[in-house]
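This entry is retained here.
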Amino acid sequence: MSNLYYPFLVQNVEIYAQSLGLTVVMQNTMRSESGEIQSYNYLRSIGAQGVLSLFTPKIPIPEDMPTVIVGEKMPGVDVDTVSLNSYTAGQMATEHLLSLGHKEIAYISTPFTNMTEARRKRLDGISSCMEEAGLGEHLRVLVSDNENEGLESTYEYDCGAQMTEELLEKYPQCTAIIAVNDMTAMGCISVLNQRGIRIPEDMAICGSMDVRWD
């Protein structure tokens, strides 16, 4: 829940559910198997009629608990899903930046782990676009090796800040950053502001998830 995307999503689920006379009970599993087992057991005990899972469960989905994934579905999981095409998202961000004249583009991401495929798929979309434009060698990829999802509330923000510091040192020629999500983009923006680097005049930033913040 440290990523602002999820509270916004849950809020909208609750608003629509209330309009249907339904009650939403939220459980935070911290993306752990024990948390998932505990949550399913609790929801079963109170007579919950179904589950909207905002991430692919690590445990087999109980047959007696109808479940829909609202988010990324991992390969091999046979369950109804509403999800974002991360590959296309990467392509769209890159096409937009290329249309603005950017040629030196960086991708900044939280770690590539078996926890999620979306981060890598966004890079695949970005890479395909850059290759098609003949700029494959001008794509810089910076991926954090610090996976603290669920344990550190600001880790995605901190990742963006850390990787932006590294980018400015190693690849000062870059004029645009595609961040894996908006929380990471916020971290990028914080460093650019501290350095007096103007956005978007000196450095363009693309995030993903459409999280609004002041």
Q: What stands out?
A: The chain has a mean pLDDT of 90. The beta strands are 51-53, 67-70, 81-82, 105-109, 139-143, 176-179, 204-206. The CA atoms of residues 32 and 58 lie 7 Å apart.
